[in-house]
Design goal:
The chain has 156 residues and is α+β, with helices and mostly antiparallel strands. The chain is 46% helix and 15% strand. The strands form two sheets. Strands 1-2 form a two-stranded antiparallel sheet. A two-stranded antiparallel sheet has the order 3-4.
Length: 156
């Protein structure tokens, strides 16, 4: 009987931990907990970066721990901006592929190399084909489906 109670307690704790982590899971590497491929998420918002459509790699000297992930930044100024308002700079869906969510494929991690702003929000993609689908299609409809999928995954 004691073993059954212990097993039940363990399973309940595991379920609670899984539910808690699902609410704010971040797209990160398997090694080093690097969010979005260690790209500087604040830099995407810079007008020059947006115009040239490049990515800016973060440095090991400027890391902020947020939502159990290490977010890398190219400068202390970027790290400070993120620390002050992570919701403003964090990519939509915490960096998971927007296209995959819109297709019902679940949480597909990204590395921060393929990105686009739709509206005023940063969206990351696993593959260029997904980004192109959103650019050429009805991104607002895709976004609605992705938002619903994200909420469902967050809330279990």
């Amino acid at each position: 009987m004691k073993q059954v109670i212990t097993l039940c307690s363990f399973l309940i704790a595991l379920a609670m931990a899984s539910a808690a982590s699902a609410t704010e899971v971040v797209s990160k590497s398997y090694w080093g907990e690097k969010a979005i491929g260690s790209h500087d998420t604040v830099a995407y918002h810079d007008p020059q970066v947006r115009e040239t459509h490049q990515q800016v790699k973060g440095k090991k000297t400027f890391i902020v721990k947020h939502l159990d992930a290490n977010w890398y930044f190219a400068s202390q100024a970027s790290a400070d901006k993120f620390s002050a308002n992570p919701e403003k700079y964090r990519p939509l869906y915490n960096g998971h592929c927007a296209n995959a969510l819109s297709l019902g494929e679940g949480l597909i991690p990204t590395n921060g190399k393929i990105w686009e702003f739709f509206g005023d929000e940063l969206h990351l993609f696993y593959a260029e084909a997904g980004r192109q689908r959103w650019l050429k299609g009805d991104w607002k409809s895709y976004r609605k489906v992705a938002d619903l999928a994200w909420e469902k995954l967050k809330n279990g």
